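Thread: iron/sulfur cluster complex, take 2
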Amino acid sequence: MTSDGCMLCPRKCGTDRTNYMGACNAPILPYVAKAALHMWEEPFISGERGSGAIFFCGCNLKCVFCQNHDISNGIVGKQYDADEVAKLMLTLESRGAHNINLVSPAPFVPVIAKAIVRARNDGLAVPIVYNTNAYETVETLKRLEGLVDIYLPDLKYVDSRISNKYSGASDYFDYASKAIDEMYRQCGLLALDDAGMARKGIVIRHLVLPGSVDETRRVLDYIAAHFTKEINISLMSQYVPFYNACKYPPLDRPLLKREYKRAVEYGFSLGLENLLIQEMSAATAEYTPVFDGNCD
Ligand code: SF4
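Output below.
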């Protein structure tokens, strides 16, 4: 925060978060809605023992289909300072987590940076995963250089009308594309260890939305033209019409198998070499965690 208030993310809303919530619905210290071993990330993130996920409340996007709307728009759990977040990281590692997976971390970068330093000083050895919607500024991401090992950004949209309609951010691509460049600069291509687990690098995620295969094509076109074809992309089929999706047809229905198939075929037609695809069976509410504040 500056004396002008919080300018951490592209909203630059200038809120005094010591006293008020910002446009991200987040005070300065994060509420943690859940900390647990999470089995439903990509195989090189979850592995056999699970990813040590820490779910933060609040979000700087306003996705009408948000699957975590209980915690993106509401408060669950209790507030944690940097030392307490560091302890959570060490507890998750002691339970066997392959990595520490920070979910929706953008509004808390100063706290998270301190927590990572503290946890490393206290012996944390597993990689740090920064799991983000990519609506971030380069200036804020630079504070994480050398602290984050694996970036897991979404690239949700290219078209500003669609990003405005579905996520309330007409400038999403302008910021997300620059943010992903910075993440790539910091960590490079995905590197796996001998067991096939992610050690360092970037994986770009894209959720295919109902009725939006053309937008998926634009996203894949951008990635294929802008990065090496070796970049890892996780093309997700797990869309479920949550939250206010019923008011935004065709988001009010599941993704069709034929829509996902067209998206996958298009990705391969571009020569993308590391395109991870998902079973359609992943599109169920069962894979959404229950947010109860439990961090035991
Ligand atoms: S992180 Fe939150 S408070 Fe800070 S600028 Fe972004 S929306 Fe505003």
